[in-house]
Model the fold of this input.
Amino acid sequence: MNESNLNIDIIDVPEPIKDKLRSLSSNITIRKQSRKGACGWLFFGENRINRQKIAIKFYDWGGDTSHAEPQNLAAIKSENVISILDAAFVNTDYAYFLTPYCEKGDLDEEICSGVQGNSRAVKLTRDVLSGLSFLHTAKLLHRDLKPQNILIDDRGRAIIGDFGSVKKIPDGSNSVPGSGHSLIYRPPESVKNGQYGITGDIYQIGLLFFQLLGGHFPYEESAWLTQKQLAKYHATEDCIDKQLFATDCIKKRIVASTVADTSTLPPWVCLPLIRTITKACNKEPRKRYSTCNEFLAHINAIRNEIHDWQIVAGLPTRFGTPNYRIQFDKKHSIHYVEKDKDSGWRKDNTFTNTDMPNLVREIETRV
Ligand SMILES: Nc1ncnc2c1ncn2[C@@H]1O[C@H](COP(=O)(O)OP(=O)(O)O)[C@@H](O)[C@H]1O
Ligand SMILES: [Mg+2]
Done:
């Protein structure tokens, strides 16, 4: 029986994957192939019996024995790591994971919808660190932690997905080769000498935290180039040469550890948060947090210093007693503050500044 909406015969995937899909479709209605799966073949469907929505991700493991075995990953039980409902090798080239489908999508969609503020960024980062600690305990390195690979469950929690780059740390060693994926997220040591250990994953979480807090993190490669480099980039006609040049410039930037430029963070990101990012993304792996638990403990320790700034209806709002928010007066092109002491928002004329960063600072002195 094949009631799937997708015509498996005509899709453009390797034959062994088609065969596997045909056999899986006796229990699963395969609804569609996702265009998002860039490094594999991703399908969404529904379990015919319990109606659970699922995702099936096929990837090329190419006989690489250092690749994490699907069974090792399936043994990980954390609410912040996507649960594996089924996983197996298809043959010596391909393997697949069957996981629940997350309707809320991935963290990149959330980041692209606008900065949400300190509390949400801290919460999501804690979720990811907590999930990652389970992988590390199992001696597994994710190697591709970035917003597109973090899914959001229906309770708004972050869960680690995309195990396509996960590798097991071999006995007697503490690192593996770095993943070639997602250049901008690669830690300096992986660009320099191809090495990647636990602190490589910590670096990637540092970048994730930076992005969640609203740091400047463009996705177009040319946006990472200096003016001088950009001029050469535009003057280069050959596409491959252009790409190689951009890659080289980005690698230099990674090695110089200037990817997470904390001066681009919004003004409500306080110094303890900035220091946290700087430490997690340190050029030297040994100067970063050495484990997820150390990183988590640090976030817990600075909790009281992080004020609850959220962006509500586009307005930076600091929740506390009282609540403050920053409004913009279009007519006079100035910012001003409103205060809410549980009786509605009223203009607060005691503030002297008229620009956003200084008003944020002024509000912070009122705590
Ligand atoms: N279980 C899932 N639920 C919802 N969306 C998913 C799921 N798995 C993957 N996706 C979406 O598909 C994208 C690509 O999937 P991913 O496993 O990261 O494959 P790739 O190896 O191609 O990056 C993700 O960034 C996410 O947007
Ligand atoms: Mg991915």
Summary: The chain is about 30% helix and 20% strand. The two ends are 65 Å apart (CA to CA).
